[in-house]
Amino acid sequence: MFRPSSMAMGLISICLIFSTALHGQVMVQPAATINVNLQKEVAKVSPTLYGLMTEEINHSYDGGLYAELVRNRTFHKGWDEPAHWFLVQYGAAKASMQLDPTTGPSANRQLSLRVTVQQADSSSPAGVKNEGYWGIPVHANTTYKGSFYAKADNEAVGPVRFSIISDDTGKELASATSPALSSEWKQYNVSLRTGEVKASAANHLVLTIAHPATVWFDMVSLFPPTYKDRVNGNRIDMMEKLAAMKPAFLRFPGGNYLEGDHISERYQWKNTIGPLVDRPTHPSPWRYHSSDGLGLLEFLEWCEDLHMQPVLAVYAGYSMAQEHENPGPELEPYLQDALDEIEYVAGAVNTKWGAVRARNGHPEPFKLIYVEIGNEDFFDKSGSYDGRYAQYYEVIKEKYPQLQLIATAPVQSIKADVIDDHYYKRADEFYEFVHHYDKVDRNGPKIFVGEWATREGTPTPNFGAALGDAAWMTSMERNSDLIVMASYAPLLVNVNPGGMQWDTNLIGYDALNSYGSPSYYAQVMFSNHIGTEIVDSRSEGGGPRFFYSVTHDPVKGVLYLKVVNASSVPQAVEFKITGANQLKSNAKIISLSAQSTSETNTLAEPTKIVPVESVVEGVAQNFSHTFAPYSINVIVAESK
Ligand code: AHR
Q: Does 146 share its domain with 247?
């Protein structure tokens, strides 16, 4: 998409811009000068500055990134038993269904759905249907992989028909028939292919039999094609959006999701590995049950697919209902669990947990640098975090001296390697806060801004929030000698009614489509265009909502000038660059702008606000440019 850039307003060298009269008043914006000295490197830009933070919230995985289409595939109880499943009785068929806590396909799965069919035949079959995560999405000419575990009391029952059916027409859009069931628990795999259907989410999945019998089902699953064709993998459209952010790391698995409300509901990584049928699943603090289909190895494979390093958060003895374990012997089992987890991620195949990872299908260890000890432990009113962090630090460092251990609250008894700071603010608050890290002591711990966001707009941020985010990112770039990593949160939201637990989230989706918010595009622009050095720069003048950052890549010979104009009137800037080789006179400029701060992207208008590329002419050691009202801009100036 192309729109004329702020170039159309021409180069302006006068000190004041007179813009359009608003409500009868002439608005003026003082011009700014940015002096850049390319010979003076202030510090290195952290190569891991921009990354992702993720947890199971807002149906981020179940009903989100994790491509499974069947909701409640393991038959947990809901208000109705079992949630999201319904009985199907076509024609004269008669059947009933109950949860059965006495039988299941594995030792960890002793709960299944018993379907008792009293009457059924091929023209009047009976069975069950699943409504999916706000529908079962279908696309034309696409192959879906179905599977389920089942057993029957009567081998004459025959096969199961596995079909995707349109809610509107009742027509089968794709179907397959399994082999005949047996009286032992067994897994059945089927393949379904759609024809020339219209893409739609208004569909459901139906499993039927055509003979009277009692049948038990568990782990009923349906997958569309996945990113990089991973078995048990992720949604393609969402992974592509994440890949476009060029993230350097993934912080997982939380967030509150790591801690759980209660210690018994913490993230227990050992329950999230190995065959899906052996994973018990668990209740999460965000008010829905987690399938744990996206478990520890799947997080790591997600890192592998997007070339991110894992930032592994380990449970550290505190859960959100003010439950904690005291430092000392009480904490030891949790610390041992964390050591095992680190070994699972990064240990060689000849270690106990490295061997388990190899058995799970990934012999190659993952490169691990950062381990986070807990999450937001400043909420622990008992004051136990200092001791808990110190205990983890001493033991983990002894075995893995190369690891950087992130503390989630200030600690006194030991110097933390890195502190994780979280900021959820309004745009105006971020504008006031942009100098916070300029003054922070460089001899203390490094900083990880592990959660941050401008919270304006729901379910995803509006353009006003994107301006707040961009202003904040200029300040993080300027301080990226101290801030080693930063990640927006929350990352994902299913926008269907009931899908969201947190108001402002970066990327929205339903079963069929996804979109990036203006804040998403601001991050794509910033993380794709950043130098390796922070260079000396100073500004004079400019309006109160004018922010900038200057980074340089001397090897590529590229200067990145980022300017955020969060005001409603244009901002003229004169750049004075010394120490540069001659710059090419035409530079690329990428701009994201809107008419008002409340404009936004939605599922219906996913690309209303997207970056637009154009050219700045006349780039030289001294040049001027006027930036549009409400705009986020990156000038990419190359040396000749
Ligand atoms: O990002 C949402 C929540 O905010 C996280 O789970 C928690 O760490 C923070 O309080």
A: no
